[in-house]
Amino acid sequence: MTDFMKRTLNLIVSIAVLAAVAIAALQVAQATVTFQEESLALAPGEIRAFEARTPFGIPLRNGLSWTVDPSWLGKMDERGGFHAGEVSGSGTVTARLGPASTRVAVTVTCPKLVEIQGIRFDVSCGRAADVYVDVNANGGAERAREEVDRETDRVSRDLQISTDLRFRVYYLGSTRAFTSAVSWLGRGFTAGPTVRQTEAVYLDLPDFIAIDQSQMVQFQSANALRHELVHRSLRHFVGYANIDEVPSWLNEGWAFLKESESGRLHTEARVASASSAFFGRLPSLDALSDLGDWNRRTGLDQIYQYYVSAQATQFLIDDMTLPGLLRALRIVGEGERFTTALTQAVPTFDYSSFTRRFSDRVKALVQEYPGIVAPRGSPDGTGSTVIAYGLRPGAPVTVRTAGPLERVFSGTVDAYGVYVKYFGMEWPVGEYRVTIETEGRRLQVNATR
């Protein structure tokens, strides 16, 4: 090839490169996003394709970036397809190419009727969440939406933790539907709890709460919801990277505190924990820290771990104050160990002393042993619950009732020195005098049904 031919070829290549650069620069400067509607409305999970073009109609295939705001509204794929998220809401999708950008308003609409795994749901979308109610569940979608909005506000206010992230709540009408729905909705996610003899669950990565209404009377769904909302609040407040550093006794204890803020369950947890400490059977906080150990407990051990953890959580809040505890949890979210974070947040707090004194403090929740109380309420929401505590574990008891229904029956003190008798809807309405006798002791209390 002659020098003239080489110079000619180089000139042609240079002109081609400059032309390509000029075209690219023009595209960057004048890129637009074209779509049929000025705004888009999509159903949850629906996909809609966007396409960027130059003013000359030439499609842009590379170099385009997308932003979805808020991020939970959905996501863009590499082909320019917008995938609507699973919850309703409004926001924008922005396309950028160099200095040019175009924004389109996007709404993920609230569905009215949805079928999942053969389960039909009525849907109502509130301020905080989209609420799906199995048509076989109690109360209806509007009532459930009001409950979710109310309890979400309540937990956020009480914990002083708020989040703008919307989520989903599912109310199921049977245990079979509950298991099927949770398994399907949580497919592909490994974090969070599994369905195991439970009436409510929160799955963190897909960010939904499910409640089995068949396992509770209707009013109790709010209690179960509050429990799971606490788990969700802590998850979002601490973040995903270090949430396992939060001990189970705090995570579950705080949830149980909000679930049982007043009434018979709150009282039962307090006196049963005290009785456990009285007989030297109170588990240590270290034994209640690991989630795997927590999930493996069954029977009374499984129930009482919630009772004990609630007392520990209340003591911690009392000692550190709620703002102090939240500072510690924020530090945990930044990657610090839980016990170290407590001291950094509140330098005067001594966790070693806290754990060492724990059993004595729980024992002091009750001033006299044995004892008997009768708080209002029972598992079915009516009547009262009679709780005797500080009795010898395994001892036989004789129970006598005087009132609208006079009965004599026997029972056995549990392994923690507690005997519980519910006076629910199966008892005639009225005032009762309840006497519990065991090993020469007689305890009496009045109970109302």
Salient structural properties:
6-stranded mixed β-sheet; 11 helices; single chain; 22 strands; 27% strand; 4-stranded mixed β-sheet; Zincin-like; alpha+beta; Immunoglobulin-like; 449 residues; globular; 5 domains
Task: Describe the protein's architecture and organization.
With 449 residues, the protein is of the alpha+beta class. It folds into 5 domains: 1-27; 31-108, Immunoglobulin-like; 110-239, 2-Layer Sandwich (Zincin-like), CATH 3.30.2010.30; 241-367; 371-448, Neocarzinostatin-like (Immunoglobulin-like), CATH 2.60.40. Helix content is 37%, strand content 27%. The chain has 11 helices and 22 strands. It has helices at 3-30, 141-159, 175-185, 220-238, 248-259, 264-278, 291-296, 299-320, 322-333, 338-345, 351-363; strands at 32-34, 39-42, 47-49, 51-53, 65-69, 74-76, 81-84, 89-97, 100-108, 113-116, 119-125, 129-134, 167-172, 200-203, 208-212, 371-373, 384-389, 396-402, 407-412, 418-423, 431-438, 441-448. A 6-stranded mixed beta sheet has the order 10-11-12-13-15-14, sandwiched between helices. Strands 2-9-8-5 form a 4-stranded mixed beta sheet. Helix 2 (141-159) packs across helix 4, helix 4 (220-238) packs antiparallel against helix 5 and helix 6 packs across helix 8 (299-320). The relative contact order is 0.07.
